[in-house]
Amino acid sequence: MSQTLTPEVTWAQRSSDSDPERNYLYVNIKAAEVPKADATLSITEKNVTFKGVSRKGVTYSVSLDLFAEIDPDNSKINHTDRDVELVLRKKELKEEFWPRLLESKQKMHFLKTNFDKWVDEDEQDEAGEDDYANNFGGLGGEGGDPSGGAGGLGNIDFSKLGGMPGMGGMGGMGGMPDLSALTGAMGGMPGGEGAEEEDDDDLPELEEAEGKKSAKIQEVS
């Protein structure tokens, strides 16, 4: 007899009143070792339902009635051997966050905040552009399966997904060593090391302009 479990679900969100690409929910359904062929995912405007059987015979099942409407056609999926990651586009463009993920105010034991991806509402602009959502594939490229099937869980290449968004930008630091050359060059400028000596060198040049002997110039320098 197979065991049926409610998988842990984590979530975070972004919001925007003008940019749909920055107005979404990030939902992670932690159903491990569930092959794509043995999983079904239904995404509608107000509900997300997942069911799958793992290689160990564990059945995972969860249904999420959402706080407000989403846009299934522009939502995205990443199904791995560890979990199912969803980026659900909020239907209404709005600067304010949803107060909660689910329609019900009841606390669900399986639902947790994803603090790795959470950003406070008033800190979204400071956090910068989040490209993570753009790395996912669409719902099979056809807006999902209206019949409530797998919804494009297959035929999506997620092998090129990188780490957390923005981390790749650190590669630009490779150009920083050039600053050391500038720093070294500044050593010979007035105000840097040896500046006192350079000031002394200026005196012979003035004396030379006044017709002083070159021997005296060498003596001072």
Automatic annotation (TrEMBL):
Domain CS stretches: 4-102
Gene3D superfamilies, sorted: 2.60.40.790
Compositionally biased tracts (Gly residues): 137-152
GO terms, biological process: chaperone-mediated protein complex assembly; protein folding
Comp. bias intervals (Acidic residues): 194-208
UniProt GO molecular function: Hsp90 protein binding; protein-folding chaperone binding
GO cellular component terms, semicolon-separated: cytosol; nucleus
Transmembrane segments: none
Pfam families linked: CS
Segments of this protein annotated with the region Disordered: 124-152, 172-221
Domain of life, source organism: Eukaryota
InterPro entries on file: CS_dom (IPR007052), HSP20-like_chaperone (IPR008978), p23-like (IPR045250)
CDD domains: p23_hB-ind1_like (cd06465)
Family assignment from sequence similarity: Belongs to the p23/wos2 family.
Family annotation (PANTHER family): CO-CHAPERONE PROTEIN DAF-41 (PTHR22932:SF1), TELOMERASE-BINDING PROTEIN P23 HSP90 CO-CHAPERONE (PTHR22932)
Protein name per the record: CS domain-containing protein
Biological source species: Penicillium vulpinum
Source taxonomy: Eukaryota, Fungi, Dikarya, Ascomycota, Pezizomycotina
